[in-house]
Amino acid sequence: MQRKAITFAILTAMVGVGTVLSGCGDKKEVTSSATGNSQGQSSPFETKLKISMFNQGTFNAAAPIPPREEDIQRQMLEKAVNIDLEMMIPQSGQATTKLNTLIAGGDIPDLIFLKSRADLAQYYDQGVLADLTPYLDQFPELQKRFSNDSWEAMSYQGKTIGVPGYDNVNGISRSFFIRNDWLKKLNMEVPTTPDELFEVMKAFTEKDPDGNGKNDTYGFIGGMNKEGNLQTYGFDSLMWMFGVNPPSAIDVKDNEPVFLYTDPKMKEALAYINNMMEAKVVDPDWVTMNTPDLLDQKLFKGKVGFMIRDARRLEPDYQQKMKEISGEVPEWIVIPPMIGPYGDQIVERKSFQGNSWAISKKADKDKIIRILSMLNYLFTDKDAYPNFAYGIKGIHWDLVDGKIKNKTSELSKEMKEKYLWVDHYRMPRRGDDAEYFSFQNPKTAEAFENNQKYVAPTLPGNLLTEDPNDTLAADRQRFINESLVKFMTGKDPLSNWENFLNTLDTKFDMQKYKDTVIKQFKEAGLIK
């Protein structure tokens, strides 16, 4: 018989684990901070169950699994829902092979962390995974923990077949960096619109903002990866000012799919970037910028006034690199994204919830309820949160003036290595939790917090799965990427925009792709 739902209040009251961790040459008593536990409180589950977990969601696959008596987080999970937890950590790059071997041998783990929605759908189609739809209503707190679009990613063929794995981090890696010292010298204000940004970039290029008497500065630099994809290298952030983005961004408006890379507004975005190219405000080295490290080197050298970079470049280690490379620490500040002509103000789109927890179809109802109860505890118990998100109290974090203080950045190299295994349990950390990152520069935390206001919802196009019969998919995508680059650089005039659209239809069977999108959107309930 299916057990009754376990309430959040009961789960919250169950935590309280103390243990002694032995190390090399010393011993340190570490007590869980979880409160509200009555001494001797027993689990609401009378029968202990053995749960096997395939955890490729760990944040450090190379870290060894500690003995149970030293593993505080494991003890907390086991006590919370009366289980014997056996956790497998596959080596980096070997997870798929390992999991498929287990499945082929009939030894399917009870709880499986999957890194992509494609894997989630594939294993469900193969009959490996359970349908969780009948059970999730019993866990309202778990449902509230993740956003609607994260849960939508768990939906497949009208059923919920997974639980979100962990929050993706947004609002930090795509920050709008600008040289405030250059703005001051040129008596200019922080730009707020695309036109204002263009004027600032032009001034940074032409008016010798570093005062060295040389024509050696530029307003902007971006790049594209080795596959020719413009995403995440800066140019795509400029496109977001116009509400569009490559290479396969698809929205839904008025009950129809909208392909943002062929939307008329994309033509405007490309015209804007082409104007930048014509005005020579873009560092010509952009064509070689195909890794984040190369863009960082440009940031450190201090000859570009505006870039899209990670807010963590404000941290002391990176500031030191700037001083070593350029001889100074430029006054970089993180500013809000521009307000585009259609009202868009986007720093980035919320990352798609690709990762998930799935449960074996071999698990009976009791085991499914027990696993979901564990996930409910792991992700929603407020007292337990710091023990999983930050690590061990007294080592990785502590209470300072009644507030949690992450101390990880203060640990010695030896102490960090000694407790690497806490990374196996950090999944509950919230994607907008600045304390988790233990920022050393308050400006980094401020930028991270401010950017959250400009993280737009995930696009529904991320829910699409590849059609194996679409033999033109790769060529079509390559053509789109190459065409956008040609338009923005002027190698192909924008007067040929209609030719681009026609070629997509005639040579790359765009209509067939559109039909596939419509079919999948209807199945997902996104359009009628």
Automatic annotation (TrEMBL):
Keyword annotations of the record: Cell membrane, Lipoprotein, Membrane, Palmitate, Signal
SUPFAM superfamilies associated with the record: Periplasmic binding protein-like II
Signal peptide feature range: none
Superkingdom as given in the UniProt entry: Bacteria
Cited InterPro entries: Bact_solute-bd_prot1 (IPR050490), SBP (IPR006059)
Protein name as catalogued: ABC transporter substrate-binding protein
Lineage: Bacteria, Bacillati, Bacillota, Bacilli, Bacillales
